Amino acid sequence: LVSRSRTTVDTVVSVKGIEIGGGKPIVVAGPCSVETPEQMEKVGAELQAQGILVMRGGAFKPRTSPYDFQGLGEPGLRMLKQIGQKYGMAVVSEIVSPNDVEMAIQYVDMIQVGARNMQNFELLKAVGSTRVPVLLKRGLSATIEELIYAAEYIASRGNEKIVLCERGIRTYEKATRNTLDISAVPILKQETHLPVLVDVTHSTGRKDIMTPVAKAALAVGADGVMVEVHPDPTVALSDAKQQMNFAEFESFMAELRQSHMIP
Ligand code: PEP
Ligand code: MN
Predict the structure, then answer these.
(1) N or C: which terminus of the chain has fewer CB atoms within 10 Å of its end residue's CB?
(2) CATH number at residue 53
(3) What ipTM does the predicted assembly reach?
């Protein structure tokens, strides 16, 4: 169903009226985790000022350590939705359990399936049974073919509103958090008809190379990029090192606009 052999027409996924894949690249931005109303209020105002249309924010965090902040859960989704409504943005958030899908769609405009759950087949079937757009991230050690099959799980349940996301894979290289597989973008565009985003934050884990990497992603045909932004990354409850502060985010956006990579 998701294969390019089915259609030459690129799929456009509409998230609350915002088109992903229509030829106008988008920037999905927001904090790693939803933390407090004050934090989200600041983020909402900043993102709106920067013209962001889709806001991200995690409420169910798949953390490596069980002792790390796990996210606010449903109250976090509620907060995300409130700020999204206030500032006129669609919202996307990760769900990790099939049991939470029905609850989550009351709050989010797009469900994120994270890298660690790309082959959580029960979750894929659950989101496939909804008609809510899905942002499907590539697994940490997943091949492109496995990512496409994961998308097929969702589509086979009747939900074809799928956006793929390259977010870096595990290699021996330690200079970046993961290795961004830039070739995955044109390959996914060639092998499927789905839109493709690149998460430049989780792939690189480095703020100092975010802008050139985002340009590269857009240059090879990505339909947009995802970045993490926090009012004060130094006190963030997750991914403190890699989130951009507002000044960094503003120069990131200005550079992409000046080079005409985003409208
Ligand atoms: C995220 O986007 O919040 C996240 C945890 O990313 P990934 O699943 O790609 O690691
Ligand atoms: Mn993160």
Answers:
(1) C
(2) 3.20.20.70
(3) 0.99
In the chain, alpha helices (H): 37-49, 74-86, 101-104, 121-128, 144-156, 184-191, 200-204, 210-219, 246-258
Is the CB of residue 114 below 6 angstroms from any atom belonging to ligand 1?
A: yes
Say if 226 falls within a structural domain. Answer: yes
Residue nearest atom 9 of ligand 1, based on CA coordinates: 115
pLDDT at 98: 98
pTM higher than the cut 0.95: yes
Would you say the CB of residue 168 lies under 6 angstroms from ligand 1?
no
Q: Which atom of ligand 1 is nearest to the CA of 199?
A: 9
Range of the domain at 117: 4-62+70-254
Sign of the torsion formed by the C-alpha atoms of 72, 78, 81 and 86:
negative
Taking only the tens place, the pLDDT of each residue in 163-193 is 999 999 999 999 999 999 999 999 999 999 9
> Closest ligand 1 atom to the C-alpha of 58?
3
216 is a domain residue:
yes
Among 170, 199, 203, residue to substitute to test ligand 1 (most atoms within 8 Å of Cβ):
199
Does a structural domain hold residue 123? yes
Number of domains in the chain: 1
Where residue 121 falls among pLDDT bands split at 50, 70, 90? very high
